[in-house]
TrEMBL record:
GO terms of molecular function: DNA binding; DNA-binding transcription factor activity, RNA polymerase II-specific; zinc ion binding
Subcellular location: Nucleus
Domain annotation Xylanolytic transcriptional activator regulatory: ranges: 123-201
First-listed, main subcellular location of the protein, grouped into a coarse class: nucleus
Protein name from the UniProt record: Xylanolytic transcriptional activator regulatory domain-containing protein
SMART domains xref list: Fungal_trans (SM00906)
Record bears the keyword ATP-binding: no
Keywords, comma-separated and alphabetical: Metal-binding, Nucleus, Transcription, Transcription regulation
Source domain of life: Eukaryota
CC annotations in GO: nucleus
Residue runs in coiled coils: none
Length: 338
C-alpha cells in the first residue's frame, strides 16, 4: 500500500470511531489517565491542526488513545474490534514507510494495551517494533547517524526524547519476566538527558535538561515525575542484566555479588530520594511518582529474589542492611555512571 493510501485508511477509520465531537472527551480521558504516568504526548502539539496534517499517523494515534481508555465490554482484550483495527493500521503504516513520531507513539500505546491485558508475546514484539523505529530515527543517541530531518523546535525534540524514554521504560518492564531475552532498546548513551520537568514542558517553557548519569540521587535535583520513572527503569535494566549474567555464569560470582550489593544500595538511595520528593513521609504524596516507586520496588524484589538462596545458605551477600540508608551517605560510595 502506498503512503497516501495508508494515510487515507487511517483517516477513514478515525472518522468512524472518533468523531470531531468526541475529540474533547478523548483528550480529557487520555490526559487525565495514561498521560499522568507516561507523559510522552504534547497536548498542545496534538491539538495543533497544522501539525496533525503533517503526520500521516495522527489519526492512528487518536485511535490508539481511545483503545487505551475505553471499556472493553464483553470482548476479550485480544479480540476487541478496535484493537484488531489499530494493529492492522499500524502494520499498514509501517509497511508503507510512514516512519514518524505519531506512528511510534501509536505502537507505544498498543504495547501498553497489550501489557496491561497480558497479551503476550504481542507486547514484547510491539515494543520491539517501536524501538527499531526510534533507532532508525536516531532518537536513542544524539551522536547517531541522522537519516531524517532533525527536530526544528525544542518542544518537538523534548517529545521525541520522552517517546524514546517511554519505549525504554516499557522494554525494561516487559523483560522483567522474560529471563535471557535481549533488550530491544540499547543502554542510554553517556551523554543521555532526562526529560524536563513535566509541568514546564506542558506549558511550553524551555528549560535545561538534566543528565541521566550522576554520582548520586538527590531529592533536591529539579527533576519531574517522569524523569524519576526513567531513572528507576534504568536501574531495573541493570538488575535484569545482573540476573541474566548470573544465570549464564559468564562472570565471576564474586564480581556479580559485588555488583548486586551496589545495585541494592543505589536502588535504596533512589527510592528514598523519590519518596522525599513526593512528600511520602508527610503524607502529601504525588500520584505520578508512584510509577517510579513501583519500578524501584519491582527491581528490588527481582534482585533480592535472585540472591535469596545464597543469603539462606550462609549470608554470602548481605543485601539487607541493618543501618538506614541515606542519600548523602551513598553519594560518596555509589557511582551510577554506567
Amino acid at each position: 500500500m502506498t503512503p497516501s493510501k495508508a494515510r487515507h485508511a487511517c483517516e477513514a477509520c478515525r472518522s468512524e470511531h472518533v468523531t470531531i465531537s468526541d475529540r474533547s472527551a478523548l483528550h480529557h480521558g487520555y490526559f487525565s489517565t495514561i498521560h499522568q504516568w507516561l507523559p510522552m504526548i504534547s497536548e498542545k502539539r496534538l491539538r495543533d491542526i497544522q501539525l496533525s496534517l503533517e503526520d500521516a499517523s495522527h489519526d492512528l494515534l487518536l485511535l490508539c488513545m481511545k483503545l487505551c481508555t475505553i471499556s472493553l465490554g464483553n470482548y476479550p482484550p485480544s479480540q476487541h474490534p478496535l484493537y484488531s483495527l489499530t494493529k492492522s493500521l499500524s502494520s499498514t503504516a509501517e509497511n508503507a514507510g510512514l516512519a514518524s513520531l505519531r506512528l511510534i507513539q501509536s505502537l507505544v500505546l498498543l504495547s501498553i494495551y497489550e501489557l496491561s491485558h497480558a497479551i503476550h508475546p504481542a507486547a514484547y514484539l510491539t515494543i520491539g517494533r517501536a524501538a527499531r523505529l526510534v533507532i532508525l530515527m536516531g532518537w536513542h543517541d544524539r551522536d547517531a547517524q541522522q537519516l531524517f530531518k532533525p527536530a526544528d523546535t525544542w518542544s518537538l525534540r523534548e517529545e521525541q526524547r520522552r517517546t524514546w524514554w517511554s519505549i525504554f521504560i516499557l522494554d525494561r518492564v516487559i523483560n522483567t519476566e522474560t529471563s535471557g531475552f535481549p533488550f530491544a532498546t540499547p543502554e542510554p548513551s553517556p551523554d543521555e538527558l532526562l526529560p524536563v520537568n513535566d509541568d514546564d514542558w506542558g506549558r511550553g517553557k524551555s528549560i535545561p535538561s538534566q543528565s541521566l548519569y550522576t554520582a548520586s540521587f538527590s531529592s533536591y535535583a529539579p527533576l519531574g515525575c517522569f524523569a524519576r520513572t526513567c531513572q528507576a527503569a534504568h536501574m531495573l535494566g541493570k538488575v535484569i542484566n545482573n540476573r541474566d549474567c548470573k544465570k549464564k555464569s559468564s562472570q565471576e560470582a564474586a564480581d556479580l555479588l559485588t555488583e548486586a550489593q551496589s545495585l541494592h544500595q543505589a536502588l535504596a538511595a533512589l527510592k528514598l530520594s523519590i519518596e522525599q520528593t513526593a512528600g511520602y513521609e508527610s503524607g502529601n504524596d504525588e500520584y505520578p511518582l508512584w510509577s517510579a516507586i513501583s519500578i524501584c520496588v519491582s527491581a528490588q524484589a527481582l534482585l533480592y529474589g535472585e540472591y535469596l538462596a545464597l543469603l539462606e545458605q550462609g549470608g554470602i551477600l548481605n543485601l539487607i542492611d541493618t543501618e538506614p540508608i541515606t542519600v548523602d551517605s551513598l553519594s560518596q560510595s555509589v557511582w551510577l555512571g554506567g
